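Quick one: structure tokens for this chain, please?
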Amino acid sequence: MRKVTLYIVDDEPMVLGTLVTLFRTNKRYKVRGHSTVEAVLDDLDENPPKIVICDLLIPDIDGMELLRDLKGRYPRLRSVLLTGQPFGPEIIAAIEEGVFNHYYAKPYDADVLMDTVAGLAREISKEETS
């Protein structure tokens, strides 16, 4: 089975480190942790993502703008938005636009997040084999 490239984008070192460690325990994923948009963009050519877990508030642009950009480059990209911010109209608009597949408020349940990403990886595998 080919590894699924998973980007984790969060500017909080503790959150980023925790998520990277959590997902690296599963051999299904090639995990790439990034704390800046610049780092994400620098990594795209060598390691295009299949799944992105992204915090809403990151330096330079917000997470939804980054996901819009990545979705434009990779239309089959799956993504999860994480945020500690209240659910507002911009989140609803992004859901309707299809910017991300799942949304979780912090603090999130790690098991639920892992199950969600596993489901997204299964969708990708089915697409690639059909």
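The helical segments are 13-24, 37-43, 63-73, 89-97, 110-129.
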